[in-house]
Amino acid sequence: MSSEEQTSLQEQQFMQKINAEEKIEPKDWMPEKYRKNLIRQISQHAHSEVIGMQPEGNFLTRAPSLRRKAILLSKIQDEAGHGLYLYSAAETLGISRDEMIEALQSGRAKYASIFNYPALTWGDMGAIGWLVDGAAIVNQVSLQRTSYGPYARGMIRICKEESFHQRQGYDIMLTLANGTSEQKAMAQDSLNRFYWPALMMFGPHDSESAHSAKSMEWKIKRETNDDLRQKFIDQTASQIEFLGLEHPDKELKWNEERGHYDSGEIDWEEFHNVIAGNGHCNRQRLEHHIKAHEEGAWVREALVAYNAKKQAKQAEVA
Ligand code: FAQ
After folding, report:
1. Element (H, E) at 255
2. Which of 37, 131, 215, 250 could bridge 221 with an S-S bond, Cβ 3.0-4.6 Å?
């Protein structure tokens, strides 16, 4: 059998597995483009979790009570854990953590655009948990069925934690919306600023999405950007109503025939500007990551030294 024939046979077997809903595991044969596309998506997802700690981290010293502070701290720590699971899943595809970090810090790899918006008030902690984690869950529930085993398994645990994050955000919003008129205004302002960027988290329209067609065929993505965004729009409308707040989308209208809400258009120019590096906080987020990474170098060095010592001792005993 020629090498081309062998590759085509491997490709057929790979697609059979995908179509039979079997998971692809790290040691299985996979097309190079499948591997690269997965590394791209999983590593960018990991970067989003880690960079996403910054807007909320800034509010740890400003939480209005000890209880709120403890909850926020634990939520932010969960995000660090999500980053870890995801970097580990990406490493099974043959890329190192250092390479991924370098891609992030040099600006080659993206992370979710939403984290380039500033968090200005305590209301933003509510809006981030409710809307940002809320949008993340809608996307990640479908990723629990992604075709790559380590990514799918990581998603199951991440989704459980994200649903707690979403509830804690909504709880903050409920308290503010039922509080004084100043608190209600703060909740409304946070909703107004975070609603549209949350819709952008689902990516460009399907017709503009460079990776969707192949990712859907390979079952890396299980639902398209627009379908997931629609789910989020539909579920959020009744949550806004329950809070007694005004919907930021003045064109939002229930469409009986479609069984979904019709909505106004996203400002795509803003989206492209932010992912091109020109959002409010892009520079600040990367500079902070680089600083924290450099300051943590001694921990990584200590770990390597400890492991080398341990291995040397084991070799001596053997
Ligand atoms: N921001 O062809 P597509 C969280 C890029 S986790 C920045 O449609 P794809 C938890 C895209 O990468 C949030 N870039 O791409 C949390 C691609 O660029 P490339 C993260 C974006 O991959 C909460 C180009 O545009 N979740 O929030 C964005 O098929 C609170 C073309 O786009 C995930 O990453 C964007 N919004 O679909 C943490 C979920 N949208 O790579 C802390 C996994 C698109 O060619 C606090 N990822 N781009 O240079 C996915 O499901 C997909 O990657 C999509 C994009 C849906 C994000």
Report:
1. strand 253-255
2. 215
Alpha carbon of 284 to ligand 1 centroid (Å):
20
Q: How many CA atoms lie within 13 A of 134 on its CB side?
A: 31
Give the SS3 label for residue 253.
strand
- The answer to whether residue 12 is domain-embedded is no
Q: In this structure, what is the dihedral angle of CA atoms 113, 85, 225, 240, given to the nearest 10 degrees?
A: -70
Ligand 1 atom with the smallest distance to the CA of 210 is: 2
| 270 in a structural domain | yes
Closest C-alpha to ligand 1, atom 44: 203
Q: Are 85 and 153 in contact (CB under 8 A)?
A: no
* Orientation angle between helical segments 66-91 and 149-177, nearest 10 degrees: 160
What six digits make up the tokens of 13? 């077997």
Residue nearest atom 9 in ligand 1 by C-alpha distance: 211
Q: Give the range of the structural domain holding residue 262, as residue numbers without chain letter.
A: 31-278
Q: Per-residue pLDDT tens for 111-161?
A: 999 999 999 999 999 999 999 999 999 999 999 999 999 999 999 999 999
pLDDT in tens, 227-281: 999 999 999 999 999 999 999 999 999 999 999 999 999 999 999 999 999 999 9
How many domains does one find in the chain? 1
Instruction: From 271, 77, 64, 99, select the one nearest 171 (Cα to Cα).
Output: 64
CA–CA distance, 205 with 208 (Å, rounded to integer): 5
Instruction: Classify residue 86 by burial, with Cβ atoms within 10 Å: 0-12, 13-18, 19+.
Output: buried
Residue 73: both structure tokens together: 């701290």
Q: What is the largest CA-CA distance in the chain?
A: 76
Cβ(224)–Cβ(204) under 8 Å?
no
